[in-house]
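Revision sheet: structure tokens.
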Amino acid sequence: MDLTVVAYVVYLVISIGLTIWVARTLSRNGRIFLADVLHGNEKLAEAVNHLLVVGFYLVNLGFVALYLSGDETIADARGVFEALSTKLGVVLLVLGAMHLGNVYVLNRIRRRGVMEREQQPPVPPQAWTAPVAGA
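Predicted:
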């Protein structure tokens, strides 16, 4: 069997496995942030979480597929490891960037929700005062 094909198969197995693991981790832990942002609306938090996971899969698996092809032919075991380390390193960097992007967006949404909640008075006003003329 051609070593280039072996490298492709190993690359796909590891990249897809890493993508699934990161997506599940983000989904499980992101649900808590979304529930807080959406004021405890669990159904909406679950729906948004699912949409984010689908988008994460599409972007990362699309990148893995586009990055699969290589120009060089792999001749020996050393070449397999070098090609895999380069390709998997780039995939890990992209997964990390996507993870940081998700955390950043969720944190921004959460902060905005906290600020909106703080702008509301803790108790309704009890009285009303008319403006004074000439003051």
